[in-house]
C-alpha cells in the first residue's frame, strides 16, 4: 500500500479523501485485470479440446489396444467361423486405431507416436500370424503363387502339341517354362479345343495361329491372343481381362470383364464385357453381342463371377480417337444382318 | 494462434508423399490402387487418363497417381514426374510376350532427371495366376540388378487377392521416410 500512498503524493493529491479515492481506483483496476486474465484463461481452455490431450490419447489407445489383444487371444481354440469373425473385428478395430493415431499425430510427442505406431505394428503382425495359423486358406494362395514344375497339371502338358515348344516370338524373355501358360502357338489350319478342366482359373495364351478354329469351353482367369491370322476363336467367360494384339481377319467371341485390343484389323468381336472394351491402333474392328453358347456356359458364367446382365459391348473406347461426339472410324457395330448365328461345332 | 496454425499445416505437409504408379497397360495399376483403398475391383475399365487417390497409411498422407499405360498415353507420363517421392512400376507377371517392352519403358523412366530422387518399387503383379513368372524371373527379365541410380525393391503380389500389396507399400514408405523425414 505504500507505493499507492507515494503515487498519491507524487500526483500532488493530498488529504484523506484523495488517498482513499486513489486506492479505490487502483483496487478496481486490479480487479479488472484479474478478471481479464481469468477470461483469457477460460477462452484458451475452451479452444483446446479434451480429445487433443496426451493423456486422453494414451488411455483411449491403451483401452482399444487391450480390446483387440483380448479378441486375438480368444481366437486360440475357437472354431473356424468364430475365428474368422473375431479376426475381422480385430482388423477393423486396428484400422480404426490407426486412423485415431493419424488424427492425433499433430499434438503427440515423437516418443508417444513411435510407441503407438510400434504397438499397432505388433497388433497387425499378430493378426496376420493368427490368420495364417487358423485360416489356412491363405496357404493355398501361396501354393498357387510359387510355380514349380510340379504345379502344372499333367494333362495340360500332355495335351500341348509337340510343335508348340519353340516360341517364335523374339520378344519373349522366358521361354523355358512357357508351356505352362502357352496352350497353343505356331499352328496352321487346325481345329483346337480345350475343356473346362484344362483352362479353369488359368491364364491362357494363344499366339501365332493362322487359319485355325479354336474352342475354349470353360472359364479362364485371363486370355491373351497375339499374332492371330484368319482364325475363329471362341472362349467362355474370362473372369478378368482379355488382351488382343496383332490380330487380323478373324472372328472372336468371348465374355470378359475388360477387353484391350491392339494393332488389330478386319476383325469381328462377339463380346460380353462388364466394364469397358478399348481399341488402340486398330482398323475395321466390328463388335456384336456375345452369342456363342455351349452346354456348360451358365456354370462357367457363375464360376467367372461376371455379371450376365451387364454387357457394354457397344461402348468401345478408342485411344487414338479422343474427340468427343464424333464416333471413331476405327471400329463399328456389326449390322444385325451380318451377325453370325450358327457357330457350328 | 495464426502462427501455430501455420506450423500445424507445415507439419502436416511434411508427412505427405507423392507416389506415381506406372506400367504397361493391363498390368493392374488401377486394380492395385483400388484394392489398396478397399474398393471394388470387379468393375474397373481400362484407364483413359489417370486416377488420383489420397489416402492415409502409417501416419503418412499418400497422394497416389495412377496413369494409364496404353501406348498412346505413355508419352504423357512425363507430365506426372514432378516432385515424385516414389515410383511404383507394375508388371503383369503373366505377360511374357511384352516383358521386353516392359524393360525398355522402365529403363527409359529411370534415366529421367525428374525421377532421379525417387524410390522404385516394382510390383510383380498377378502372382495368383498359375502361369505367372516368379518375382525372381521378373527381376532378371527387367535387369533390376543393374539399377544403381535408385533404391529399388521387387515384391510379388496379386491385386485381385490383395496379397503383398501392404508389404510393398510399407517398404516404399519406409524407404522414402528414411530419406526425406530424417529430421524427425
UniProtKB/TrEMBL annotation, chain A:
A Pfam family that the UniProt record links to this protein: TBCC
Subcellular location, principal: cytoplasm
Domain C-CAP/cofactor C-like residues, every copy: 167-321
Biased composition range(s): Basic and acidic residues: 22-55
InterPro entries: C-CAP_CF_C-like (IPR017901), CAP/MinC_C (IPR016098), CARP_motif (IPR006599), TBCC (IPR027684), TBCC_N (IPR031925), TBCC_N_sf (IPR038397), Tubulin-bd_cofactor_C_dom (IPR012945)
GO MF annotation, one: tubulin binding
Gene3D superfamilies linked to this entry: 2.160.20.70, Tubulin Binding Cofactor C, N-terminal domain
Biased amino acid composition, Low complexity: 153-170
Cellular compartments per GO CC: cytosol
Region described as Disordered: 1-55, 145-175
Ranges that cross the membrane: none
Taxonomy, superkingdom: Eukaryota
Keywords assigned by UniProt, alphabetized: Acetylation, Chaperone, Cytoplasm, Phosphoprotein
Biological processes, Gene Ontology terms: post-chaperonin tubulin folding pathway; tubulin complex assembly
Statement: the UniProt record of this protein carries the keyword Cytoplasm: yes
UniProt entry tagged with the keyword Phosphoprotein: yes
Subcellular location: Cytoplasm
Subunit-structure text: Supercomplex made of cofactors A to E. Cofactors A and D function by capturing and stabilizing tubulin in a quasi-native conformation. Cofactor E binds to the cofactor D-tubulin complex; interaction with cofactor C then causes the release of tubulin polypeptides that are committed to the native state.
Family to which the UniProt record says this protein belongs: Belongs to the TBCC family.
Function: Tubulin-folding protein; involved in the final step of the tubulin folding pathway.
Protein name: Tubulin-specific chaperone C
Lineage per the UniProt record: Eukaryota, Metazoa, Chordata, Craniata, Vertebrata
UniProtKB/TrEMBL annotation, chain B:
Family: Belongs to the small GTPase superfamily. Arf family.
GO molecular function: GTP binding; GTPase activity; metal ion binding
Record field: transmembrane: none
Domain of life: Eukaryota
GO CC, alphabetical: centrosome
Alphabetical UniProt keywords: GTP-binding, Lipoprotein, Magnesium, Metal-binding, Myristate, Nucleotide-binding
Residues reported to bind Mg(2+): 30, 47
Protein name: ADP-ribosylation factor-like protein 2
